[in-house]
Every structure is written in C-alpha cells, then in structure tokens.
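re: ur question from yesterday

yeah so i grabbed the chain u mentioned. its 331 aa long if i counted rite. heres the sequnce exactly as i have it in my notes:
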Amino acid sequence: MTIRLSDKALSPQVFLAPMAGITDLPYRKLVARFGAGLVVSEMVASQEMVQAKPGVREKAELGLEQADTAVQLAGREAHWMAEAAKQVEGNGAKIIDINMGCPAKKVTSASGTGASGSALMKDLDHALTLIEAVVDAVSVPVTLKTRLGWDDNLLNAPELARRAEAAGVQMITIHGRTRCQFYKGRADWAAIRAVKEAVNVPVIANGDILGTEDAKEALRLSGADGVMIGRGAQGRPWLLAQVAHEMGSGPAPEVPQGKEREDMVATHYEDMLNFYGAELGTRVARKHLGWYMDGAGTGPELRKRVLTSRDAGEVLRLLPDALADGERVAA
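ran it thru and got these structure tokens back, copy pasting raw so excuse formatting
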C-alpha cells in the first residue's frame, strides 16, 4: 500500500517512529537501507534549533539523499515553530512532523522549555495555533504525531485530528495510549479507530508494534492506513522491511547473519563515531551495541567490556566475539 502526501508517495506503509536519543542520522540511514516507507528524526526543540543550541542541530541532520525522511519539531510558541520549520525546510527537509505526543515530564511541564508535547492536548486552541503556524510557514507536507488524549478523562484525539486536518495537516500518527499512561500497560489500537473515522487524511497506528502479527492486528483494530514501529526495531534495523514484506508490501530484506551482521554493527558503530566525534560517539553507541548484544545473547563479562570501553579500536576488536551467537537468533 502506498500513502500519498501531496506529491510524495510513501511505500511501504511501515514507518520508523521518532525516538529521542535513538533515531539520529546514522540509525535512520541504516533502517532506510533495509527498507522503510518513512523514517522520522529525533524530536527537535524548535526554539533551541533556531537559536543553534549545542547538540540540537545535530539531531536535525536530515540525510538529504533520503526522500522519505521527516524532521519532527516540538515547541509551545507559534513563532519558534514556524521559524524552525522554515529553517529545516530550507536545509532540505521533505516532510515536517509536529510532536504533540511526547509524555516526558520535562517536555510537558509548565516550567523551563516544557508545556509542549502531549501537554498541548489539554489546550487544543493553542495547539492549533502551532499547527497553523507551521503549515503556513512551509510548502512541504506537515504531519502530526499525538496520543489518544491527556488521560482517560480527556480522550480528545479525534477532535484534535479533525481540527488539524482542517488546518492542512496531511497525515496523523496516533500512539494508542494517553499521556498519563506513559508507556505502561498495552497500547489500545482499537481506540485509534475513532481518529480514523474522524478524518480523511491517512492515519498511522503506533505503540507496542513489535512484529508482523502486531502490525496486522493494529491495522485490523484501528482501521489505520499504516503502522509506525519504534522500540521493536531497536537492535533489529531490518524489522520494518521484514514486517512490510510479510504484509505483502516490498521485497524480503536480507537479514544479516554471522560475519555480515558483525560488519553491519561495526559499520553502524563507526558511523556514530564519525557523526558525533569519538568521545560522544562512544557514549551514544552504547545503547545500540547493547540491543545488538541482546539479540546475540552475549555473555555478561564480554558485554560489560564492550559497553564500558572508551577505546573505539578495542570495541571493534571485541565485536566479532560479542556477536558470535547472533546467527542463532531468529530474525
């Protein structure tokens, strides 16, 4: 199935979710090489982006050779959201996504740079000023990612979706939890159906989709047009392409085994070092190396050596042994 946003065709209908500290440019490139209909950047704080705060622009590194890449912006002031949108469009962003779903306290609290993310679901009038500002500022498609509501007493995603569509948003992704659930319990895919029935634009189901059976069930219960996978792809960058293939969209990915998997992980590690620099890169890489070793069943002593080493050369020397059992793990 192909999802269309203006003149852009997104296929297959399996997308990579934005994840803070995870979906940086090296990881998005890796997932895209296996196959994905869309990959989305880490959430980028709009005001900090415009004011060039250290580390923020790196999150918005776009990968301009990838047509199916979205940059996700967050904020609480229309001016900064519009300015950031214009900036990332000028840098080559093909799609801009607005974050109204992040549940983190530092994002949703009224202090500091908060009162954004899913907190905006408590004030839809204000939320719409941000959406309208971004849509009016750029010519590329604008999408929205949000949740079912703030809590069980405020399940207003259908109303937000209707108003967002009227303002020009071209696709809406719904995480099947409220903000107050954070990531507890199970995502309610059936509750997403109310959003699908409220709008004519494509709706994407998100939350707890860890494989093909989850994706099929999420689509069945929600009636959504596609799925967005986040945590399920950690350590498995081929998962999106695999799910798409098993749902009848796209070729089967060549899941790397043995030496090929070692080479993939080593290349990903080196890409992170090149992107962030050696010192920061070794720290950022640890979470990814940990997920790869989870899949390989790496023993605790060797795992500790890999994750605590500050010497990139040593890490690369240890990886073949650390991943030696990877070929026995089901793809």
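noticed a couple things. DSSP finds 14 helices and ten strands in the chain. also Residues 258-276 form the longest helix (19 residues).
anyway ttyl
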